[in-house]
Write a structure and sequence with these properties.
With 294 residues, the protein is mostly beta strands. It has strands spanning 6-10, 14-16, 19-26, 30-31, 34-38, 41-43, 46-54, 60-61, 64-68, 72-79, 83-86, 93-94, 97-101, 104-110, 113-116, 120-121, 124-128, 131-138, 141-143, 149-153, 156-160, 163-165, 168-176, 179-182, 185-189, 193-195, 197-205, 209-210, 213-216, 221-223, 226-233, 239-240, 243-246, 254-261, 265-266, 273-274, 277-280, 285-291. It has no helices and 38 strands.
Length: 294
């Protein structure tokens, strides 16, 4: 575990008013301030003009690599000419936190450009049972993996049983060489919630791509969201102004409601292209939203 301040912060510690800059490179879980935040709180802190790089399959984040065990990362930022890069594969990369497990990320601003290969997000790469809220991302997000669902999101790359809520926003250019790409979240499963998220900028990607979420399933919810980003697809199907692929398992329901789509979708070689939803796989799916522009 690698970080400028600490490899790991744990056991109920409360850390405040930390400022870091420079270059951080790790072969394990790596963060700009701390590699891991476990059962602790990091708040009112800043990383500026920082370059964070991870080289193996562990989580990498601009502030913290791994936020876990009911930890809280809040009221902090990563600004200036900052970058977060994961050159390995198989783990998570985020502008603020690589992976969040049963923890809270609250009131974060990140302007760090993010590049990774799997579960790549402008703020959080992967959230499992986490709460991510009040997030502002103003940066580019790039996923260089070329096969399968690699999960790329403007705010969160991949979430399971987790929520992204309370006026999160993304502005920037998202580029993914593989599938499952969203302006807000790459994929949201297992009762994941995406509420009050606004996205601007551009998405250049492949299959299962949406202005808010690339794919959702398992009672997941998209509500009160606005997608005002242009989408360009080089290859692949299931392209939606809000959600690319909406699927539910038996007796469960995925819902998209009270949301708005603006701006263009260019997907000349794709099948299943919709102003709101690219493809809904089951009758146990419903949506009530508005297309306000072409």
């Amino acid at each position: 575990k690698v970080g400028v301040l600490a490899g790991a912060i744990s056991a109920g510690a409360i850390i405040k008013n930390v400022e870091v800059s420079g270059t951080v490179s790790g072969v394990g879980t790596t963060g700009g301030i701390a590699g891991q935040l476990s059962g602790a709180t990091l708040q009112d802190s800043k990383a500026y003009d920082i370059a964070v790089t991870g080289t193996t399959g562990n989580a990498v984040g601009g502030l913290v690599g791994d936020v876990t065990a009911t930890a809280t990362l809040k009221t902090s930022s990563i600004v200036g000419n900052s970058t977060v890069t994961h050159t390995g594969g198989g783990s998570a990369t985020g502008g603020a936190a690589g992976k969040v497990t049963s923890s809270i990320v609250d009131t974060i601003t990140t302007k760090a450009d993010v590049t990774g290969k799997h579960k790549v997000g402008g703020a959080v790469g992967e959230s499992v049972g986490g709460t991510v809220k009040k997030i502002v991302v103003d940066a580019d997000v790039t996923n260089t993996e070329v096969t399968g669902d690699s999960f790329t999101g403007g705010v969160v790359g991949y979430q399971s049983g987790a929520s992204l809520t309370q006026k999160a926003s993304y502005t920037g250019n998202i580029t993914s060489a593989s599938d499952a790409t969203g302006g807000g979240v790459g994929a949201s499963i297992n009762a994941g919630q995406i509420i009050s998220v606004t996205t601007f900028g551009t998405i250049t990607a492949k299959a299962n791509t949406g202005g808010i979420a690339g794919k959702i399933d398992n009672t997941s919810l998209v509500e009160k969201c606005t997608a005002d980003n242009s989408i360009t697809i080089s290859a692949g199907d299931n392209i939606g102004g809000l959600v690319g692929l909406l699927e539910s398992r038996a007796a469960e329901q995925a819902v998209v409601k009270n949301s708005v789509r603006k701006n263009d979708i260019i997907a000349a070689a794709s099948t299943n292209v919709g102003g709101l939803i690219g493809k809904a796989l089951t009758a146990n799916a419903s949506y009530k939203s508005k297309l306000s522009n072409s």
